[in-house]
Each structure stands twice: as structure tokens, then as C-alpha cells.
Design goal:
alpha/beta; single chain; Rossmann fold; 13 helices; three-stranded parallel beta sheet
């Protein structure tokens, strides 16, 4: 489990240079510079402030950095870039992966294993789980005391309903003992995935889905083909930390008879699963209801709004990445 704490495959080559800041949101380019400094790299851009500005002393970096912004602004890309650029022993994982590690090893053994590392990178810090948040706060506090740097992004807590609501203050409040070690970077912007994929998730007929699956299998692909209901039922029997193992070696995911979800627990498990599918860059082929419309019963406007909207964005991108012929698209 410790050896697996590295960035997901899609971020294997993530770098500050490959980040695409949106010129309409200057905070994105500013975040790149600050992240580079945090990782011990010299920013490529010149400091503003004219000739004398070049001699202005840069503020000392804190041992922790928190990337705060809406979904799809590239927080994970920047987090992975920090990880790649940062020297020494280091770990990268989601909040769930770290809490699962603590559960498997035990708290003291987990601290002993991580102590002495130079960097802990945490993606999607789960502010909506008070118990685990407090445990992680204590865990990270012990590591910071031993010289470890912390870089983090987070999900918005349940009471932050708006898509554009930033979570920095909620994050700092929940990790009260560590708040002073973090420098927060607010990253404005719109979902970068929508730059490439607009509209709805691609859906196909049952007949087209069967043919597309057959073509991929004959071409040597490994397609996980299931009824949507069967997948939802199976996810309820597997701990979310094991979702990544379900898709090892899979080159495409095919889902029959997609329909709306009305149970919040089912919906949140599906969100966690899609996070792993998206990280593994697995395209999705689906029939039935368009995948961007599955969160029913007011879920999309409830306490987990940001999680659902991020998932919708990833579903649109993942079905678009399947490169399904236009003739097979259903309106």
C-alpha cells in the first residue's frame, strides 16, 4: 500500500510546464509560480514590479501548501507537479488512500513508516468526514514536527453548496492544529475538461454498445462490460480503497441500462469509483440514461453538490474519450 502512494497514471508526466493556465484567470499562472517555489524550483516568469521588483525578496514558504479552487482548474495536476519536482522520499495519494493505510497498518505504525519523508501530497482532502479529518490532522501534525512538508487539495464540505464556493477557511478550521503551517492558494477558473468536451455524456443504443464492445475485444482490448445495476450493487460490497484493483488492466468500461440514482450512498460510491476510472484514463461506453443525468432527487443541489458536479464533468470527458462514431450517438 505504501509503494502504491504515487500519482495516478494520467499524471505520470505532469509538470509545471505542461500545466495550461487559462489567461482569463491570472490566479492560475500565479499558482504555478508559488507551487514551483514550494517544490524548490525557480519560476520561469519574471517577477512583476519593474526593474526593482526583480530584487524584491520573496516571502518564505511555509511547510504546507493548500490548493483551493473549484473542480477542473488543475489542482491535481499542480499537486502531481509538486510531487515530481520535490526532492527526497515522498508520497502521493487521496485522502481515502491515506486513511485506508492508517487503518491497515495502525496509527503508530503508519506514523513510523512515513516519518522522515520530505513530502506528503494529499488529493481530495475529505472535509465532510469529521472523524477521519481529525485523525489525519493529528497524523500530519506528527509528520510536520519531524520536518515533512505537506501539499493538499480538498473537496468542499457539505455546507458549501455553490459550485464556485472556495473551501480554504473550512479546510483550515478543520485542521486547526496545522492551520498555521499552510499557505493557501486560491485558483479561480472554469472546468478545463469543458474546454474539450461540451454538452452531455455520450450514450449509445444497446445494439451499438454490444458492437463497440465486440470490436474493442477483437482488437485486443480488455473491456469491463456490466449492467449498471450490477456495478452499483457490487460497489456496495467492496471498500472504496479497493476500487482501483477492480479496474487494473481494463482498457474500456461498458455499462448497459444506465438509469438515475436515488440513493445517496449508491451515488457517492459511484462517484468514488469514477474518480478511479478517470485517473486511470479508462474511456466509458454507456447505454440508457445519459451519465451526466444520473444524480436524481435533488442530489445535485444538495450537500455533496461539488462532488457530483466534478463526477459529471469526468463522465462527460470519459465518454468523449471513447471516440465513439457520431453515427452511434443518441440524442
Amino acid at each position: 500500500m505504501v509503494a502504491a502512494l504515487v500519482p495516478p497514471p494520467q499524471f505520470d508526466t505532469a509538470s509545471f510546464e505542461s500545466y495550461r493556465p487559462d489567461p482569463e484567470y491570472p490566479s492560475q499562472a500565479e499558482a504555478v509560480e508559488m507551487c514551483m517555489r514550494f517544490a524548490g524550483k525557480k519560476p520561469q516568469t519574471k517577477s512583476s514590479g519593474g526593474f526593482f521588483g526583480m530584487f524584491k525578496r520573496q516571502p518564505e514558504m511555509k511547510p504546507g501548501i493548500y490548493l483551493d479552487g473549484g473542480f477542473g482548474v488543475g489542482k491535481t495536476h499542480l499537486l502531481a507537479s509538486i510531487w515530481h519536482a520535490h526532492p527526497g522520499r515522498k508520497y502521493f495519494g487521496t485522502f481515502l488512500e491515506y486513511t485506508s493505510l492508517i487503518g491497515a497498518l495502525g496509527y503508530q505504525e503508519a506514523v513510523r513508516t512515513m516519518r522522515g519523508c520530505q513530502l506528503i501530497a494529499i488529493d481530495e482532502f475529505e472535509l465532510d468526514d469529521p472523524g477521519d479529518t481529525m485523525m489525519m490532522s493529528k497524523f500530519l501534525g506528527e509528520l510536520v514536527d519531524s520536518g515533512t512538508s505537506i501539499a493538499a487539495t480538498s473537496n468542499t464540505p457539505p455546507n458549501a453548496l455553490g459550485e464556485g464556493r472556495f473551501a480554504a477557511q473550512d479546510f483550515l478550521r478543520e485542521i486547526t492544529k496545522l492551520a498555521d503551517v499552510f499557505q493557501t492558494l486560491r485558483i479561480d477558473g472554469t472546468d478545463y475538461r469543458r474546454r474539450d468536451f461540451e454538452g452531455h455524456a455520450v450514450r449509445v443504443s444497446d445494439g451499438s454498445l454490444a458492437r463497440l464492445v465486440d470490436e474493442r475485444v477483437k482488437a485486443g482490448g480488455v473491456v469491463a462490460h456490466d449492467r449498471f445495476d450490477d456495478l452499483i450493487a457490487h460497489l456496495a460490497k467492496v471498500h472504496p480503497s479497493k476500487y482501483i484493483r477492480m479496474i487494473e488492466g481494463v482498457t474500456a468500461l461498458a455499462l448497459d441500462d444506465v438509469h438515475e440514482l436515488h440513493d445517496q450512498a449508491d451515488a457517492l460510491r459511484f462517484v468514488a469509483f469514477i474518480d478511479r476510472v478517470y485517473d486511470a484514463e479508462i474511456p466509458i461506453i454507456a447505454s440508457g440514461v445519459s451519465l451526466d443525468g444520473i444524480f436524481a432527487g435533488g442530489m445535485i443541489d444538495g450537500g455533496y453538490r461539488k462532488k457530483y458536479l466534478r463526477c459529471v464533468s469526468r463522465l462527460i470527458a470519459s465518454t468523449g474519450a471513447a471516440n465513439i462514431p457520431e453515427a452511434d450517438h443518441l440524442s
